[in-house]
Design brief:
39% of the residues are buried. The two termini are 18 Å apart. The protein has 370 residues and is α+β, with helices and mostly antiparallel strands. Strands 2, 3, 4, 5, 8, 11, 12, 13, 14, 15 and 16 form an eleven-stranded mixed sheet that branches. Strands 1, 17, 18, 19, 20 and 21 form a six-stranded mixed sheet that branches. The longest helix has 12 residues, at 25-36. The protein contains ten helices and 21 strands.
């Protein structure tokens, strides 16, 4: 049967939120739920707490579009630190020796450092040309990657990161992904504290145990389901020095961006911290996300259903009569193949999401109330 989505058009739309660091994607959904005073809110694709950037939030009828947007390709700007590995493959983790102690001595060069000059650092860490060669040979086009054990993938109904935290062995299968672009924007050589992740670049003698590292600023465009953390880890492994992610910003999800066409729709957010004492007398600090727009202003920033479907999927123009037919659950004449949104161009009325059969007709999959 056809699935009827209720709620009026004025309470439906998409927000393009610039997620701040230190909160989960779910925290941002909770903030939107409070700000919009509506229960029907969701997001199109998780960002790690460490990551910032584009989080597409749907409310009302537009929550039905989120499943389609999740599958869109994405662009990220990130910093990959070569010369240091962590258990989570990002800066929130604990440093580990890349492949046992032997590999780590070779890559960090603890005992062999002479005067810590730039030239010396360049010699031990791969130079930019070597990094770009490794990327071109191993990390462009169709590749396979194994997600990190600390990820949200479910294994027999349990999240991998819950199993990993319990110390259980997590075996994740390699999955095919497509990398359309992997550009090195900048490479900075230096030293970092070998005992903790995410330490700033510094001079060799600033730490008791310094690791030689290079911080690569990169831009990656990739298919849905690509883990940038896994790219950082695998690039480090390919170069024999280890690697992890220290910064991640998503700049695009499909056609949704924070600047350009959608600048007027972008909503920033910030983090508020609350410290309290729980029942066991422990002091707990919680972060929550707060949107920097509310009420009418927030609604005015939202993409309307018509704009939202135009960015989310293919659309087909229909007549008012066709719209009524679709709302009765009937098929309409329509060319083409695959999923599309049926829109009455004169009024911007999004009547339904339809499946075009390829035989000159379309059947309604999800119908939106007039």
């Amino acid at each position: 049967g056809v699935d009827m989505a209720s709620q009026g058009p004025q309470t439906s739309g998409l927000l393009i939120v610039d997620k701040p660091q230190g909160v989960t994607s779910h925290d941002v959904v909770a903030a939107a739920r409070g700000a919009l005073h509506t229960k029907k809110v969701g997001h199109a694709g998780t960002l790690d707490p460490m990551a910032t950037g584009v989080l597409v939030i749907g409310f009302g009828n537009a929550t039905r579009l989120l499943n389609y947007i999740v599958d869109h390709d994405k662009t990220y700007e990130a910093t990959i630190r070569l010369g240091q590995s962590t258990d989570t493959d990002d800066a929130d983790g604990t440093p580990i020796a890349p492949d046992g102690p032997a590999a780590s001595a070779g890559c960090a060069g603890h005992g062999t450092r002479r005067d810590g000059t730039q030239e010396d650092a360049d010699r031990r860490m791969p130079d930019r040309a070597a990094v770009e060669r490794a990327i071109a040979e191993h990390f462009l086009g169709d590749i396979e990657q194994v997600p990190n054990a600390f990820s949200a993938i479910k294994i027999n109904g349990q999240r991998a990161y819950d199993l990993a935290r319990e110390g259980k062995a997590v075996e994740l299968k390699a999955r095919p992904v497509t990398i359309g672009e992997f550009t090195v924007l900048d490479a900075r050589y230096g030293y970092a504290d070998a005992s903790r992740a995410g330490a700033p670049l510094a001079a060799a003698n600033d730490f008791p145990s310094a690791a030689q590292v290079v911080d690569l600023d990169v831009r990656v465009s990739c298919s849905s389901g690509t883990y940038i953390r896994a790219l950082a880890r695998d690039l480090g492994a390919t170069l024999g020095v280890g690697g992890h992610l220290t910064r991640l910003r998503r700049t695009r999800v499909g056609r949704f961006v924070l600047d350009g066409d959608h600048a007027a729709h972008a909503v920033t957010a910030h983090v508020e911290t609350r410290t309290f004492t729980n029942r066991d007398g422990e002091t707990v600090t919680r972060n929550r996300a707060v949107l920097d727009a509310a009420g009418e202003e927030l609604l005015s920033r939202a993409l309307t259903m018509a704009d939202a479907v135009a960015a989310a999927m293919q659309t087909v123009a229909i007549s008012g009569h066709d719209a009524a037919e679709l709302r009765f659950g009937r098929r309409i004449p329509c060319g083409g193949k695959g999923i599309a949104a049926a829109v009455v161009p004169e009024t911007g009325d999004v009547a339904a999401i339809v499946e075009r059969t390829g035989r000159g007709e379309a059947k309604p999959v999800t119908v939106f109330a007039a």
